[in-house]
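Tip: read the tokens left to right.
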């Protein structure tokens, strides 16, 4: 079962993709079960309710689903929590030693975007970078969890994420701060689907990325330094996890920061895929420099050459 949200931005409807009797995958309208896929729905045993309705044949077909925009599979998360340098090879290409405890940072939830939406490159950006990551969706409130095993009971499902990062804002010099490099508009594409946790072996998923059709990243979640259970347990010791939160688990080697590849440019196309969780594609578009409106009677500034 794959949980999605389809439709124009701000008007998405909940949809289920599942195999029909003939084995072909079909789209089903889940709006009779819930108005949206969000934290409140997940906390109210929403995944199980969707599965029961699907098995009972209570969900109507959704004709024309293929022609609808694909939104994020989860309405805007409460929090987007990230784990940095969680693959040893990526830590090495970043010039850092592999961490001995999880590196945790946050992204604003207004960075979230659909998996196929155009992605804006910030006006002053010179080092915009891609990062394919496994995303964990939290399904219940969790705080000070006792063990990593208990942490798994808080996981509702998984999705594909792109943790876009502006490296010049993030890293070098006195102004370099992770928050600055990780907070840009539409810098966290999610989806296309949310797959329930009990249908995913999160410890053995191939994850890959391509830029303009050329391979960049190719790894497996088996190479995570801190696995899903460890990450959720660790984060719960420092903050209250709420239903609808998303935790991004880190990216493998093969990003532009390595020096082996150019950073993203206007017109580039990035594909990202995680086995069983679907594939994203974004076209990158340079954001124009905003210009202040000209006041009545004022002389416009000359155009730069």
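Filled-in amino acids:
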């Amino acid at each position: 079962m794959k949980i999605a949200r389809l439709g124009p931005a701000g008007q998405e409807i909940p949809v289920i993709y599942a195999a029909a009797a003939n084995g072909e995958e079909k789209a089903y309208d889940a709006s009779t079960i819930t108005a949206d896929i969000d934290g409140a729905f997940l906390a109210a045993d929403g995944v199980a309710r969707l599965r029961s309705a699907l098995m009972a044949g209570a969900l109507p077909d959704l004709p024309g689903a293929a022609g609808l925009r694909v939104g994020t599979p989860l309405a805007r998360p409460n929090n987007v929590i990230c784990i940095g340098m969680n693959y040893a090879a990526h830590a090495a290409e970043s010039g850092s030693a592999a961490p001995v405890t999880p590196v945790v940072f946050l992204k604003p939830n207004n960075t979230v975007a659909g998996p196929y939406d155009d992605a804006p490159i910030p006006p002053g950006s010179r080092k915009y970078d891609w990062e394919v990551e496994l995303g964990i969706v939290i399904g219940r409130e969790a705080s000070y969890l006792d063990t990593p095993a208990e942490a798994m009971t808080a996981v509702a499902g998984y999705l594909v994420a792109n943790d876009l990062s502006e490296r010049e804002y993030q890293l070098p010099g006195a102004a370099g701060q992770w928050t600055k490099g990780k907070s840009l508009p539409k810098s966290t594409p999610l989806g296309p689907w949310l797959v329930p946790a009990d249908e995913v072996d999160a410890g053995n998923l191939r994850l890959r990325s391509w830029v303009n059709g050329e391979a960049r990243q190719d790894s497996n979640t088996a190479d995570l330094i801190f696995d899903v259970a460890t990450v959720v347990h660790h984060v719960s010791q420092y903050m209250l996890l709420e239903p609808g939160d998303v935790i991004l688990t880190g990216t493998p080697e093969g990003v532009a920061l390595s020096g082996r590849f150019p950073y993203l440019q206007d017109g580039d196309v990035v594909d990202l895929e995680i086995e069983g969780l679907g594939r994203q594609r974004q076209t990158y578009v340079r954001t124009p420099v905003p210009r202040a409106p000209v006041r009545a009677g004022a002389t416009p500034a000359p155009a730069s050459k």
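The CA atoms of residues 77 and 130 lie 21 Å apart. The helical segments are 39-43, 46-55, 88-93, 148-151, 167-170, 178-182, 228-236.
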